[in-house]
Amino acid sequence: MAPTAQAPSPCVTSVNVMRAPIEGYQRLTGIDKWPVTGPVQVGAEGLAGDRQFARSHGGPDRAVYAYAEEDREFWEADLGRPIQAGWFGENLDTRGLAVTDAEIGEQWRIGSVLLQVQQPRTPCENLSARVGIEDFHLRFNATGRVGAMLRVLEPGHLQVGDEVQVVLRPGHGVTIGRYLTDPEPRALRRLLESDVRLARPVGARVRRIVARAERTG
Questions:
Q1: Which of 8, 79, 136, 203 is deepest in the core (most CB within 10 A)?
Q2: Cα–Cα dist 132/97, whole Å
Q3: Residues 54-88: pLDDT tens digits?
């Protein structure tokens, strides 16, 4: 019997930074991201050359935005058109990494950078304007295929072709997709009881859901 071929290791397929600020729904936005080549420096606030224009779009808990090519292909089929890397405003495109199934608190080593999954992307009207479909951001969010916002635990450099190594998976079961589409209270309780540092909006939502479930029995 021939040996079973191993699946390729998860890797980064595109690294994207803001080309120029553009007019967004209410203010300037850095959603217009395009691929760059060579090693890119990554610090606590994100990739060198990138920028966010609203507090709700940036900060240490949203320093880097990762999106899976597999999810982008879902939208290509759904919309019936090709979508280039960076079009959704993501910094990193990956292949072979189930970003939607990443647990909150999961840690990835990419190049010399250590990243932690903090929360799902919260899409706004700027995404709808980018795609050219009214209220597309609501449709995008409803699928759970929104990508992951990452915190930089160890700064360094990364580039296209770098392997994505999942070095820690907390085991509580609350993934990016389930957090959005199926926030099961028992799993959320496990998340609260874990040692995962929660981003403020995530912690507030998790505690509300758990408290409501406990009140109603």
A1: 136
A2: 28
A3: 655 568 999 999 999 999 999 999 999 999 999 99
- Give me Rg for the CA atoms of the chain: 17
What secondary structure does DSSP assign to 3-30, as a single string?
A: PPPPPPPPEEEEEEEESS-EE-SSSEE-
Domain assignment present for 190: no
The tokens describing 59, both together, are: 């900060």
Question: Rounded CA gap, 114 and 134, in Å?
Answer: 36
- Asked if residues 94 and 130 have their Cβ atoms less than 8 Å apart, the reply is no
Residues whose CB is less than 8 angstroms from the CB of residue 137 and which lie 6 or more positions away in sequence, other chains included: 123, 124, 125, 126, 127, 128
Residue 89 resides in a domain = yes
- d(CA 56, CA 134) in angstroms, rounded, equals 21
Q: How far is CA 3 from CA 6, 7, 122, in A?
A: 9, 12, 43
Q: What is the CATH number of the domain that holds 155?
A: 2.40.33.20
Q: Cα dihedral sign for 73, 70, 21, 53?
A: positive
pTM for this predicted structure: 0.93
Find the domain containing 110 and state its range.
11-170
Count of the separate structural domains present in the chain: 1
Report the number of secondary-structure helices (H) and strands (E) in the chain.
Answer: 6, 13
